[in-house]
Amino acid sequence: MARLLPLLLAAAAVIAVIQFVAPAFVGVPAPAARAQTALRARGGGEYDVSDADIEAFYASVTSGGGGDPPKGTVISELIVKFFHGEFTPQGFIRYSGLWKGPPPGGIGKKDIAVGVAKLKEQMANPMFVTKGGGGAGVDETQKVVDDGKGWVWLAADMGPGGLAVELFKSVPYGKRALFVAKQANVEEAFSKADWGAVLANVEKTLGG
After folding, report:
1. DSSP summary character for residue 24
2. Where does the secretion signal sit in this chain (predicted)?
């Protein structure tokens, strides 16, 4: 009995410690954890794109010398591919004639200039606008054609045929936002375009 007494006292001490420490390991209730996950899925918190973020993005792509994007870059090729042509109510008809170059027969400065002019026209008065906004990861029913903020975006996305660009009048969450302008003053943005910054945006996704 004398030998058992120390063992019983030690066991009682261990139980007391466990009872004291256990409450510190209580987990977060499941509903609260799910709510936090849902907030992130809706674009809450870290994935929001605020008005200040848009202004900062605008400043980043309009800190250059303007003009047209250089020949041979992804940006100039996308602009020519998706804006050098005719916009009709039935859709966009891509130019299929001989490229002016130089050199003739290849895409050059003359063709890029035509594509940029068409892009400006469409950003000022877009015929086709893709739905956006709503936050990162939202479904189609929560997206809008125009968020009323006055911005028009040029954004790219990867499709079966490679990169394609579209125009948005709401934040293009989940897309590769390339350029943005105030719809009421598109010329201002192009007069200060930083095509190096625009090119770098090809590798970035907006809003998470």
Report:
1. G
2. 1-23
**pLDDT (tens digit per residue) in 66-82:** 999 999 999 999 999 99
Taking the model in full, what pTM does it have? 0.77
What is the distance between the alpha carbons of residues 76 and 96, in angstroms, rounded to a whole number?
17
- Name the residue with higher pLDDT: 130 or 6: 130
Q: Which candidate, 143, 142, 176, places its Cα nearest to that of 157?
A: 176
The DSSP secondary-structure symbol of 173 reads T
Question: pLDDT tens, 165-175?
Answer: 999 999 999 99
Distance CA 204, CA 208 (A): 9
Tokens of 154: 């040029």
CA-CA distance, 173 to 41, in Å (whole number)? 12
Backbone angles phi, psi at 88, to 5 degrees: -125, 160
**Which DSSP category does 177 fall into?**
E
